[in-house]
Amino acid sequence: MQGAPIAKHPVLIQLSSGLYLGLVFYNPQFESLKFVLEKREFFEIEWPALVISQERGLMPILLGFPFFTIQRSQIIWYTTHIPKELISQYQAYLPVISQQSLPAKEKQKNQKMNREEKIIPFPKIPKEKEDGS
What we know:
This protein has helices at 33-39, 84-93, 104-116; strands at residues 7-15, 18-26, 42-54, 57-62, 67-71, 75-79. The protein is of the alpha+beta class. A hairpin with a 2-residue loop joins strand 1 and strand 2 (18-26).
């Protein structure tokens, strides 16, 4: 039996504790991103990073959690328009390992690890219509 289709979309979310960057998950057959962000009481964000402001602009700091759950009532605002520079900086933090650059022993070890751990690389932002879905 195959799992339900999952869509992932990067968003910036402002909580009372700060500005966060992460991936929101939803089932595109039954939900839209707008529905998930505006109507659901709880939703999960993967690869959460706290975004801080520095001289060079917004900088993400990976929190080290695989995901966390947010309650809708905590959200002040959100956006799906994320600066490319911020996405690039965030991608640099993610543990994506190139199998070609590893020795044979490490490749075998990583293949075993990959069966146990799920590492999802940060996606490129799709060029979607401005309809919010």
